[in-house]
Amino acid sequence: MAKRTIVFIHGLWIHSSSWQPWMDLFNRHGYETLSPAWPGDAETVAGCRAAPGPIANRGVTEIADSYAKVIASLKEPPIVIGHSFGGLIAQVILGRGIAAAGVAIDPAPIKGVWQLPLSALRASLPVLGNPFNLKKAKSLTYSQFRYGFANAVPEQEAKELYDRWTIPAPCRPLFQAATASFFGSETKVDTGNTTRGPLLITGGENDNIAPPILGKASLKKYNPSVKTDFKLFEGRGHSLIVDHGWEEVATFALSWLNDNGL
């Protein structure tokens, strides 16, 4: 039986092409794969860095809708795998009932998750610290990337990841997540949908931007009658999909999908 297509969804500050090793792995296991960019992103890292204007002021719903449009062109509902804000968007899409299953890797918090760990606040302050950033696209400095993404890898690897993958990102999604407990529905997920497919949420033990407490809090929001699992990756930070240990995460996701008949 032919396997479903997998749609990979990147998060803030990391280019969609970073999913290529994952795509190669899943292709070898019989899956078709896609890694669409967010609306406004250029095809390359260099292109995004040279022209950040088109990605500015994009919000969660607009980004989710762009992936829904891609999904509508497929023959059947795909599997969605997302990282960081991509993990949040994967949950939005799964909640809409247009995906067969979802994997949310160290996802940004969904609406209703009120916890705000100090590390997550510190990692977000370069954006949230200035309200005039709302409609802008911002890049991380290396020191900000080192703290937020690459705190669990050696210094040299952190520099290589920063140079290879980082791009400017819209600030609006961070503001939407930060204010979701008080107003706005952009980060709301239909956690009560009992017809949705299975969901895996992961957390990196040392993740500063999206500490495991956020993923565990999201898990508790879901209807327990539908399969929703949580996996903790010990010793890992937010860069776990692109750093030297990416294959551990990818193979776990692959095994989880296979265990669920996907």
Walk me through this protein's architecture:
The chain is α/β, with parallel strands linked by helices and 262 residues long. The protein has one domain: Alpha/Beta hydrolase fold, catalytic domain (Rossmann fold, 3-Layer(aba) Sandwich), CATH 3.40.50.1820. 38% of the residues lie in helices and 12% in strands. It is built from ten helices and eight strands. The strands form two sheets. A six-stranded parallel beta sheet has the order 2-1-3-4-7-8, with helices on both faces. Strands 5-6 form a two-stranded antiparallel sheet. Helix 3 packs across helix 4. The longest helix has 14 residues, at 246-259. 50% of the residues are buried. The model has no long low-confidence stretch (mean pLDDT 95).
Tags for this model:
262 residues; alpha/beta; Rossmann fold; 6-stranded parallel β-sheet; two-stranded antiparallel sheet; 10 helices; globular
Topology:
Layout: E1 6-9, H1 20-28, E2 33-34, H2 45-50, H3 60-72, E3 79-83, H4 85-96, E4 101-105, H5 118-128, E5 137-138, H6 142-148, H7 155-165, E6 169-170, H8 172-178, E7 199-204, H9 212-221, E8 228-233, H10 246-259
Parallel strand pairs: 1-2, 1-3, 3-4, 4-7, 7-8
Antiparallel strand pairs: 5-6
Can you describe this structure in just a few lines?
This protein has 262 residues and is an alpha/beta fold.
Number of helices: 10
- In terms of DSSP E residues, the strand content is 5-15%
**Which class do the helix and strand fractions yield?**
alpha/beta
CATH fold-level name = Rossmann fold
Coarse shape = globular
* Topology as a string of helices (H) and strands (E): EHEHHEHEHEHHEHEHEH
